[in-house]
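I'll show one example:
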Amino acid sequence: MNDAAIQNFPIPAEAGGLAVTARGLVKHFTDVKAVDGIDLDVPRGMIFAILGPNGAGKTTLMRMLATLAKPDSGTTHVMGHDIVAAPQDVRGAIAMTGQFASLDEDLTGRENLVLLARLWGFRGRAARERANALLAAFELSDAATKQVKNYSGGMRRRLDIAASLIITPGVLFLDEPTTGLDPKAR
């Protein structure tokens, strides 16, 4: 892996080594309480899953943690940064892959990843190397020169997740990460 691709996000001492901490997190949509008093501690380096039925508030919770939605009450820190007081710091320490792919359908898989790497500050060769490493890691090398619109659903999903890993975030949020993946890829 390219050294330029690795970023370390130090956690302030007061964060206690937690990637995510939440206390009493609440979010309403008119008269619906989508998130009702969530308390959460997620240590660094842990794979943590939030499971529940449709409409349980999982996506709303992730949107709040990623600073895409403001909580109505409660306190939350991601990588030691308050999601309300320091949203830019949170955004600099995370990556998020939503339920739907955010890829340019007319570009190839490699072109998508190189473009994103360039946007993250990688220069020409380093951007291509990072894209190729991710294509290999997600078993997409053989499809690297195909336009994304010709990818299967599972291939798109893998490419979308790979795109989230252009940089190495302190926290990676995956919303419905296995949607469209076959059992082997899951």
